[in-house]
Amino acid sequence: MQYSTNIKYVISHLSFHWESNDEVVSKFRFVQSNSVLPNIEEPVIIFPLCDEILETPVSINILEKEIPVLFSDSSKIKSIYSLNKYGQLIFNHDFITSSFYLLSGVAEQTVKRDQFDRFSYEDSLQYRLDCPDIPLVNYYFEAILQGVEAYCRFHSLSFKRKRLFERFGFFLSHDVDRVSFYRPKEVLYKIKQLSGMAPRSFGYGKTIKYLFKGVLKNIFLFSLKDPWWNFDDLIFLEKSLGIKSTWFFLHRDHKNLDSQYELTDKKIVNLIKRLTEAGFEAGLHGSYYSANNRNKIKYQFNLFEKIAGRQPVGNRQHFLRVTGIETFRNQESVGLIYDNTLSFAEHEGFRNGYCYPFKLYDLENDRELDLWEIPLTMMEVSPLNYRKVGLDGLYHSAFKLIEEIERFGGVFSLLWHNCRLMDDEYPGVSEFYPKLLKDIMSKSPQSVTGEQIIDIIQASNVIR
Ligand SMILES: [Zn+2]
C-alpha cells in the first residue's frame, strides 16, 4: 500500500516500539474524516485522519494519565479504539496527525521568533497546554499499540512490543563554550560588571575577588587553578560513576558570541584526543551563525575532522539556536549524523513530544531528512537561569522527566556546561552536580554517548 510521506514517517517511527508485523500493517487504512468507511465486515485497522487541529484538545486516558490529543472528530468518545465483532479495529481519534504535528515541527510553523531568531517556548503548544514534561507522542504511539495489540489478540496474530533501553538511556553532554576563567578579557569584563555596564554573574564582593585574582594571575603570573579548565575533575567524576559523556566543541567564529578558543589550539586538540581515548565522544558545537550559514558549519565540520582525525558524528548548535529547517538541511548536507539541539531554551522537557531519537522532517519539501535528532531533555540553564527554580527545582524536574522517559525506555539527555559548576555562581553546585549524576545512575540507566544511541536505534530498526 502506498502511504503519503507524512503517514510513512509516523509509521516508521512507530516501529521503534513494536516488532512491526507485515500482515498487520497490510490491514492499516488511513481514512479522511467524513469519507466512507470500508465494508464493516472487512477486518481492517482504521486510522481516521483530520485536517483541523482542535481548539481544545480532547483528553484521553492513556496509561492512566489524561493526555491531550490534538486531532479528533469524535471528541465525545473517550475510549482509544473500538473493536467490533468482525475484528475490525477503529481508532476513535487521530493519533497519526497528532504525532506528525509534533514530531515534524508543524507545531512550530510561526513567523514569531525570539531575539536570537529561535522559536519561543511561549509560542509553543506545550506552553499553552502546560505539558512540557509529557512526551505526548510516546503516549499517542502507546494508544495505537494498545489497539493493535487488541486486534492481534482477536485474530490470533503475534504481537511484540520493544523498547530502546531496558530502563532508560542516560545521555550526558557538555558544551565546551568557555575554558579560561582568568583570561585577560574575562578579567577586564569584571571591571565592566562592577561599573554596572554589564550584568554580574556573582555578587559584588565576589566579582571584586575574581578581578583581584585575575590581576594576580595575569600580571604577576600567580599559578591559580582555572575553574573553567576543570576537565580532569569531570573526567574523573564521570569515570568513577560509569558514565560516558559527549563533549561538543565550539570554534571561535564570532568574537563575542562564540568561544574564545580556536578548534586548532593545541590544548583543545589534546583535550579532544584525551577524551576520545578514554571512550568519551567529541562532537561539534556549531557556532552562533552556523545555524543559518552552510559555509560556516561546513568549515567547522572540516576543521574538526582535521584536528580530531575523524569526522564529527553529532552536533549541537550554540545557544540552542535553530533558525528553521535550514539549520538541519545544512547539517545533513555536510555529513553530520545527529543533532542534539531540540529543547526549549526557556524550559526543559519534550519540545517534539518524544523521548526517542527521531528523523528530522523538512516540511517545505515534504521529505524526511537523513539526520537524526536526539532530543535534548534538559539544559541546566533552563531551570537555573531562565526559570530560576534553583538546584532543588532542577533536581525535582529532572526526576519527573526521567519518570516519564523510564516508562517508555527512552533517552534522558542532559546538558551541563563545564563553565557552570562554580559555587559562587550557583551556591552548592559543586556538591549538587556529583550527587545528581550519582542519583541518576542509581536508577540503573544505560550511560551512552550520542554516537552509541544512533548505533542502538539503527540496530533496533534493522530487526523489524
Ligand atoms: Zn554553547
UniProtKB/TrEMBL annotation:
Protein name: DUF7033 domain-containing protein
TM segment ranges: none
GO biological process: carbohydrate metabolic process
Organism (species): Natronoflexus pectinivorans
Start and end residues of each DUF7033 domain: 92-183
A Pfam family that the UniProt record links to this protein: DUF7033
Xref: CDD domains: CE4_u7
